[in-house]
Specification:
secreted, 118 residues, two-stranded antiparallel sheet, four-stranded antiparallel beta sheet, membrane, CD59_antigen_CS, alpha+beta
Length: 118
């Protein structure tokens, strides 16, 4: 791989990593929903995380602050005792903890393979 390809590859990787931090976070927003939430919202500048609270048969989804993601703070804010919660910092990541946005990684891999074959 020549020097120009290495420079292009490095620039592409840096761009891919930084592109998700340039706009407001988008999260699913539903209060005590028995089904998966489909409503979404662009969070305010103060809210830097998406939250999902899972109680027995209900889930709450909303924009949140990462600094308030401790179990104690969530329990106090929502007045609940038995629950599980998820805080994350990617668009729509509060739908399910198993969902991972792999599109940027897949695109990067294809471009790296293509550049290496030149």
């Amino acid at each position: 791989m020549d020097k120009m390809n290495c420079v292009l590859l490095a620039a592409f990787i840096i761009l891919t990593i930084s592109c998700n931090s340039s706009y407001a976070l988008r999260c699913y927003i539903c209060e005590q929903s028995p089904i998966l939430c489909r409503t979404n919202l662009t969070c305010s500048d103060e809210e830097d995380a998406c939250l999902q609270i899972r109680m027995i048969h209900l889930r709450t989804y909303k924009c949140w602050k990462m600094s308030k993601c401790s179990k104690e703070v969530v329990a106090q804010e929502f007045s609940v005792d038995s629950f599980r919660h998820l805080c994350c910092q990617r668009d729509f990541c509060n739908k399910s903890p198993s969902l991972i946005n792999t599109a940027p990684l897949g695109i990067s891999a294809v471009i790296v393979v293509w550049m290496m074959s030149l």
